[in-house]
Design a protein that fits this description.
Helix content: 25-40%
Number of helices: 5
Order of helices and strands: EHHEEEHEHH
Structural class: alpha+beta
Shape: globular
Radius of gyration: 17 Å
Mean pLDDT: 93
Largest sheet: 5 strands, mixed
Number of strands: 5
Low-confidence stretches: none
């Protein structure tokens, strides 16, 4: 199998949107998808976009998934990190090597851009993804817990700021 990554173009937005809904459904939280195709277009294709999306294609098959990435610079090291927000391979294409090939191609992109590593997270209990990442040789990070401030608590905190 020959897998390639290509930068997403505006014509890919509906494909990416369907994948995002598929990912949310697979994680058991389809109600979390509130983004629209218009917002996706804005996020990915306006000048100075903070994130990028690559379409994962398999020769003879076509588009099978996407990788959504952005670059971070941790304060402790100052080194660049390619953060993988989503790696999604359509269900009917999983287990054929496209995910591993996409990760290898992302590592090449990261290295070319001066990144010293790649980071990502996964939903707890996703044993299939965990086993895949373990086979790649990835290390599970420990020592931190991810938090999110959103909804009413987010708005309430912002309302307390002194201008």
């Amino acid at each position: 199998m020959s897998t390639t990554l290509r930068p997403a173009v505006p014509a890919d937005v509906s494909f990416i949107f369907d994948n995002i809904r598929g990912l949310a459904a697979a994680e058991g939280r389809p109600e979390c998808v509130t983004i629209t195709t218009d917002r996706l277009t804005e996020i990915l294709f306006t000048p100075g976009a903070a994130c990028r999306c690559y379409i994962i294609e398999v020769v003879g098959v076509g588009a099978v998934g996407h990788a959504w990435v952005y670059t971070l610079t941790p304060t402790f090291t100052g080194g660049r990190v390619l953060y993988l927000e989503d790696l999604y391979i359509r269900e009917d294409q999983r287990g054929r090597g496209a995910g591993r090939d996409a990760m290898a191609l992302l590592a090449v992109i990261a290295r070319r851009e001066g990144c010293e590593c790649m980071d990502w997270s996964m939903v707890e209990g996703n044993t299939r993804a965990g086993a895949f990442y373990d086979r790649l040789g990835a290390n599970r990070k420990s020592g931190s817990v991810t938090y999110r401030l959103s909804g009413p608590a987010f708005r309430a905190l912002a309302d307390t700021a002194r201008d």
